[in-house]
Amino acid sequence: MPLFTCPRCGKDYLVPLAFCEALLAGTPLQAREGSESVYVAPCSDCLIQKPNLFSALPARSPEELVETLAECKHARIERIVSTGHASPDGFWYDQVESEWVVVLKGEAKLLFEGDAQPIHLEPGDHVTIPAHRRHRVESTTPDEPTVWLAVFYGE
After folding, report:
1. CA 39 to CA 71: how far, in whole Å?
2. What is the pLDDT of residues 94-124, one digit of tens each?
3. Which of 9, 76, 16, 14 is nearest to 46 (CA)?
4. Domain positions in the chain
5. Around 120, how many Cα atoms within 13 Å sit in the side-chain half-sphere?
6. Level-2 CATH architecture, domain 65-153
7. What integer pLDDT is reported at residue 106 of this predicted model?
């Protein structure tokens, strides 16, 4: 069995080649010495972890915390934590991917270019943002973290 490196924790571990080939979609490519590159899944320790979206929330941070939870060729899932953050004046997101985003905790105001008023998002509210639909975060709650779950995907 070949030795690979876990794409999440960096630990080296043995993996049956059949296991690697069964998980071609959405797993990172790794090269083996003297052989072709193969796709490698996270190690068993990382696969059985039970992380919580509300754990390790920073009390206050100068920057938004953006953590990629999962990704593959055509999609990426991120946890975003904002505490009183907003887009800089004059800045508009203009993304090549579409985005579906939900507020899980806290509140936020999201403004789309051309709209007079921002959308007020509370826990459970979600919105789909088409690719290249310019938007900005007007505000997030200043006294508690706003936790977003964002799914970015291609056409």
Report:
1. 13
2. 999 999 999 999 999 999 999 999 999 999 9
3. 9
4. 3-47, 65-153
5. 1
6. Sandwich (2.60)
7. 97
What global pTM score does this model have? 0.70
Three-state SS string across the chain, please?
A: CCEEECCCCCCEEECCHHHHHHCCCCCCEEECCCCCEEECCCCHHHHCCCCCCCCCCCCCCCCCEEEEEEECCCEEEEEEEECCCCCCCCCCECCCCEEEEEEEECCEEEEECCCCCCEEECCCCEEEECCCCCEEEEEECCCCCEEEEEEEECC
Residue 17 has pLDDT above 60, yes or no: no
Pairwise CA distance, residues 2 & 58, whole Å: 39
Q: What is the largest CA-CA distance in the chain?
A: 60
Using CB atoms within 10 Å of the CB of residue 41, give its burial: 0 to 12 exposed, 13 to 18 middle, 19+ buried.
Answer: buried
Instruction: State the amino acid at position 68 in one-letter form.
Output: T
Amino acid letter for position 44: S
- Given a cut of 90, is residue 155 above it in pLDDT? no
